[in-house]
Design a protein that fits this description.
219 residues, alpha+beta, seven-stranded antiparallel sheet, six-stranded antiparallel beta barrel, 4 helices, globular
Length: 219
C-alpha cells in the first residue's frame, strides 16, 4: 500500500527485456535508508518488488502483464521515474490509498501555466473515467492528485511548483503516456453494487425456472 506522495526521483540504469518480461535497474538515494530484498517500491505508480540491491541501485522484475497495463515499457536508460516505498503502518497518509496496481494508461494532451501552478490535462479511457469525480482522488504515475476538472474523456489536475520539481511531471510533454490508478474505494463500491444486482437477477431467474418446471410437471 502506498500514499501517492513521491519520495524521490530515480534514474533508470537499464531495462533488459526478454521475450516478454524484463529486469529494471534503477539508481536512487533516499529509499535505500531501509530498503530490503523483497520490499515493494512504486515506480511511476507501479508496485514492483526489489529483487536485488547493490549500493544505490536496485533491480525489479517486470512481468508481461505489467508492460501491457502500464507505461513502463517505454522506459529507457536515463529515464526519470517517481519512487515511493510502501507505507509503514505507523505513518501518515499524506495522499490517498494507492495500491500500485495501474488500471490503465492515458495520454498527456496539454500543459498550461496558471500563475504559480501548472494545469496538466490527460485523455483517459472510459474504464478510467467512470470512476472519476470532480475533487476526487486519482494517482498519475503514482502521484496522489485531486481531480480539478473533468470532461467526457479528460482529467485535469493543477500542480504546485513543489510537486512538479519533485516528480517526473517536470519532464513531461504532450503525447507522453501516463499511468492511471483510480481511487480504490470507488472501484470496490461499484463491484459491490453490481454483485448485489447480479445476485438479485440470479434469484429472479431461478424463481422463474422453478415455476416453469412446476407448470411443466402439471402442478
Amino acid at each position: 500500500m502506498f500514499t501517492g506522495i513521491v519520495e524521490e526521483l530515480g534514474t533508470v540504469i537499464s531495462l533488459k527485456r526478454g521475450s516478454k518480461a524484463a529486469v529494471l535497474t534503477i539508481k536512487a538515494n533516499v529509499i535505500f535508508e531501509d530498503l530490503k530484498l523483497g520490499d515493494s517500491v512504486a515506480v511511476n505508480g507501479v508496485c514492483l518488488t526489489a529483487t536485488h540491491i547493490s549500493g544505490n541501485t536496485f533491480q525489479a522484475d517486470v512481468m508481461n502483464e505489467t508492460f501491457n497495463r502500464s507505461s513502463l515499457g517505454s522506459l529507457k536508460k536515463g529515464s526519470v521515474v517517481n519512487l515511493e516505498r510502501a507505507m509503514a503502518a505507523n505513518g501518515r497518509f499524506g495522499g490517498h490509498m494507492v495500491a500500485g496496481h495501474v488500471d490503465d494508461t492515458g495520454e498527456l494532451v496539454s500543459i498550461k501555466q496558471d500563475d504559480n501552478a501548472v494545469w496538466f490535462t490527460i485523455k483517459a479511457p472510459e474504464n478510467i473515467m467512470k470512476y472519476c469525480i470532480e475533487k476526487g482522488s486519482i494517482a498519475l504515475d503514482g502521484i496522489s492528485l485531486t481531480i480539478a476538472k473533468l470532461s467526457d474523456d479528460t482529467i485535469s489536475v493543477s500542480m504546485i511548483p513543489h510537486t512538479i520539481k519533485n516528480t517526473n511531471f517536470g519532464y513531461k510533454k504532450p503525447g507522453d503516456k501516463i499511468n492511471l490508478e483510480n481511487d480504490m474505494v470507488g472501484k470496490y463500491i461499484d463491484k459491490l453494487l453490481h454483485f448485489d444486482q447480479q445476485e438479485t437477477n440470479d434469484k429472479h431467474t431461478n424463481s422463474t425456472l422453478t415455476m416453469e418446471m412446476l407448470r411443466t410437471a402439471g402442478f
